Predict the structure.
Amino acid sequence: MAGLIRFDQEDIVNDVQKVVTSTWSDNTNNLQVAYTSSAQALLGSATSSGAHYIEVYHLATTQSVQYAVAYGHKNGSGSLDFTNDVGAYGNSPSKNIYNQYRQLVFGDEASNFTFNDYTPDDIYVINVNRARYKHNLKPGTLDLRLSGSSTLTTLHLTDDSLTQTGSSTITNIGRQFNIVSGSLGVRLGSNLTQVTNSGSYGLFYPDAGFIILNPAAVDHYIDGLVPGTSQNTANNNHQKLFNHISGGGYFILDSEEKVSSQFYFARAKNGEFNYTTNPSFVDINGNVNIDSFIDNPTTYITTIGLYNDSGDLVAVAKLSQPVTKDFTKEALIRVKLDY
């Protein structure tokens, strides 16, 4: 048997492929029906998780969480203060949410969300559960529909990644695209701001897995999403957002994963690997058991072993069926490693 053979530079090839799958459970493409959990029913308690966000499930609450909805206000309006006392006014779940997301996006708690030159005091948030996607959400696949409360109007929302030919603003947490009226990454109309004096509909952060919506712009198109902004009052605005998403019954968003592969081309030339150390090949005296193998030995390649520079076996590749090898044959076997 030949000794270890070092791969030449041209024998090793690197490749990266993008794999796209549905974000939602059970390979569901369109999340049409959504459920909330009774465990989060304490919307009126300032210290409960339900006052901060509502988790949304697929099929039933025994399934995994698909995404969460939340409401943020930079002054803390629209939710109960944690402590009703001097110096604590305005410290509430809505203020926590606003501060959390501007810290993520801008890296500080002084910057405000601006939607095409319009800066509201509040935001709606749709945050996809981290377990639902791989590396990132795929731009151009978003198709979210929000229904009006008292009309048959439905707002179709997507990102503008295709309209902008993939270009984006880079933030503290990665790419930022605009949320616009349209579908599958294509903006409907020529203007980013489609609501006069209210800015654009929102922002999409595919690398961090969440959507920020501009309440003022969205409510101009569909009624019922204008947030309550009473101080120290549980207006439950995030429940309003969930109702409009559930009423729209249409939420498509794909997940994207980059799979890096390394290909090793293992070559067995005609004069190599024609003998074996298998004990059955020879008798106790070292003579070849099969006479025809004396002048024309034949082996069967079943496994490729990859070794490091220290001679340690680090990976093994098994062939689907043995490959016959003798002095009249050469073999080229491609080994693929994904990581």
User: Anything to note?
Assistant: Residues 23 and 295 are 60 Å apart (CA to CA). Residues 24-252 form one domain. The chain has two domains: 9-16+258-338, 24-252.
